[in-house]
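Record 1 of the preview.
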Amino acid sequence: MKRRLLFLLLCIIISVPGCSSRSLRELYNAGEYNAFLNRIKDRTGIHLFFKGRALYETDRYREAAAVLTQAAKPLSAWREASVFYLGKAFAASEQYSAALKQFTYLYEKGKSPIFTRRALYRASEVAGRLKKWKLLSAICNRGLRRFQGSSYFLRNALIAAEKNKDSHLQRKLAFRILKRRSYGKDNLRALAIIRKTKLKTATLSFNKRLLWIEGLIRSGAHGRALRLLRKTASHSPNQRLERDFNLIWVYRLQRKNGAALKLIRRIRRVYAHRAVIVRRTLKHRCRLAARMQQYSLAIRILKKMELKNPGKNRATALHLSRSLPSSGNRQLRFNRWAAKRYPKTLFFQKQLKNRLINLYKRKQYRSFLQKQQYVMPVINDRTILGSLSFFAALSAAHTGQKKAAADHAAQVILNLPCSYYHNELPGALPGIKPTPLPIRTTDDASLICRKLLLFGSSDNENKIVDRLKKLWRIDPLHEALGDSSASLRQLLRGPDQTLYTELLSTGYFREAFGLLYKNSIDTRRSLESLPINLLAAAARLSGRAGAHRSRFVCLLSLFRKSGWGLEVLHMHRLTGAVPVTRALYPRHFKTEVLKWSSNWTLNPFFVFSLIRQESAFQHRITSWAGARGLMQVMPYTAMNIAAETRTRAVDLLIPEQNIRIGTRFLGWLQRSYKNDLAMLIGYNAGPNRIKTWKRRYQRRYRHYDRWGFVESIPYRETKGYIKAVLSNLIAYRTLYKREMHPAQHSRF
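->
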């Protein structure tokens, strides 16, 4: 008996530190920094680093600086990370000299590609605040040598040169900016510098003069550019040619079509033997023909260019598509040709979709169905295919073609399962069921799941489920999800690899993911562009780090690259083989959501769908507009609701308070409009927009149609928001249908 008691006591003693350490990691990875700081008691180097990071994230910058100063000394592999965050803490607490010292050490002696790059950016910012213009100039020169063409360092170097009154350096940097051929503020600033330094045209080389003239053209100063071009002379034929092409550009912009046409013909006559120059003249001639409304000629020229140089005239095709009038069939035929010629450019397919949906809005249903058959062969994007099939089903139902409507509805589910359009089918086509399709022996698991969605339920469901389980074992998605050997370490370089490995070994996944995310920004390689095996690893890591939005992006990209869509949700519901789908549509803060949604008679799945879209369940985020927390509630909305309910001031970063305020606002919208569409518009764009947009739609199309109205919403963000939330709603219903209470089956 004594031995058993001693053994149990020993187990408790051994397990307590481990449990404490594990819970600390969980708090840190979940972003619960205040709770983490309340519990942490360790004073070792590693724990001091994380304590300093937590203090920084909770805006306690001076305390963070003191802790990180201690942490930077004993840590070897983490020294550069500690120094960088120490510099950030000093800068945030307005100790700029101390911050500059840390950042200078990093960019001069540091070896980590991630932290040395960021140290340069931060050092230039701090030097600007301290008004040390010579130091800022030196930092920017170093940045320009290391990151050639960086617009950030070019702008700051130009500011430093202005403050130092170095006119020679100002001109030099201005021409570097003009060489980037950018529009907007940078271009205008460079031109202002050239004008202010009283540059003489005669002293400039031909190339610099041409850069200046092109900058003037981009800024809209066409008259001055034309005068300078006429004064510009050269003995070199190539330089004269560049001048002539700029003259054509100015003539086109000034609508001097005759002069531009004359110059184009002269260049073609002189350089008929040079294919590159002939192509440039044809491009200008095509755009000039579009400007002169000679659309048939412009299309013929473009097709001629495409025969000689296939796939290299996309920009001209885009310009011509925008120039063509929307009335008539010419634009439709051209966009169909361009969509076939450039299958990876979705612009032409979107143009076709918008043109057809406009026919639906005007109640030209038969015309819509004819043109839909004409354009469908060139559409390869599943989203556009599904949306066109949805409106084709509606058009067929309006013209009394029930069988055709059922066939088109089946195509919606095959192309876009568990999407907004799938969610809208029962309400759009009452009494019409999608046509079921037979399951063949050659079908893969993805196609079988989509076909099963058409049946609803099947007598042979058990046999089909057994077959799905067999197919799942050889599916690429199953292999990718089961591959634990894939390491994201290979994406990093030098000391960053060592730091990443140590962060993983300590269990602080939030910092490891942050390192990986910074690297993806620096290398301009987004996480969703990773190969399949690395995508699965990135999804696992982002989930452990509490970066739910990144996890959603990685998982969706993984499904798409493996040949799956959201039918994978149905696959999991049938077989239970893809538990990762529940991570794609989680139910975090379930207790709070169920409590407050029932209080305001809301469907909790609707609230989960909205939270997933608004904040991806990250409760500490703040948007650019100032919306805060899980449900992205605006502070003035929270203030008004708190005043109405006579409650004390709320902290929107606390999940329960945010959900309480957000669900109350949603409940008010539900009582006011009794419509999920109006609720979402009111929540995203404001309650005043609903009536305005509805009135505008009715005035233009002489009737109201729910689905046409959604497509005509002028705010692209609101339109996408509505579709995303309603798509999330059907996904939650698909995954958690068996767990739903009967009262939760309402539409919203």
